[in-house]
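Q: Got a minute? One more chain.
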Amino acid sequence: MTVQKIALVTGAGMGIGLACAEAFARAGYMTVLADINEPKEQVAKIVAGGYRAVAYRIDVADTQAVNEMIAWIVSTYGRLDAAHNNAGIQTPQRPMAEITDDEFERTVAVDLKGVWNCMRYEILQMQKQGYGAIVNTSSAGGVVGFPGQAAYIACKHVILGLTKTAAIDYAAQGIRINAVCPGVIRTPMAEELIRRNPQLEEMFTKEIPAGRLGKSEEIADAVLWLCSPQASYINGHALVVDGGITIK
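A: Always. Here it is, folded:
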């Protein structure tokens, strides 16, 4: 199969990131799956399906490591067409004033600085190319509040401001930067929240107009579309994919 484009997905070891990486690969991209735990098994499954993918171990909070990752992608494949900055963690669920400094700082380091780091070096490469598409993972919690997740939700709000501002800065250079805002998606992270509070799933199901939790593949469809030519005039947008929960 001829490789048409190169894509990077961070936080690609599971959940939304993995679904997005699989979608890019099926669409013909040579896909770099980047995660703090090198996703070798996930890549092996993609390759076994006849697609192109490679695993890369990265802590997105490490600025120099991100710089080196983008340099490696470009030296190996020649360019970077699309990037999905998805890596993130959640703060332990408790009221804002009870979140420790260490918990806050680690959440900001991964969920905000990690996106900042990736965008910086992706944009620098895309400037050289004269084109590129970036999608940042925010959250439905990036447009509303959510109890017990102050640090996480704060980062997701800031990602939208960062996305919109960078989109203005680089639109004339052929670089599109958007965000996807997933609602309650059945991922390992969501399952952990539900495990800690079993009433959450019933509460979510009642609150979501669609009457169910979302699927990672539904977010992947949105991300792939935002990176496609079909979305060529969409820039600085926060695409909410949440079954309607934030419209109530």
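A: The longest strand covers residues 175-182.
Q: Perfect, thanks.
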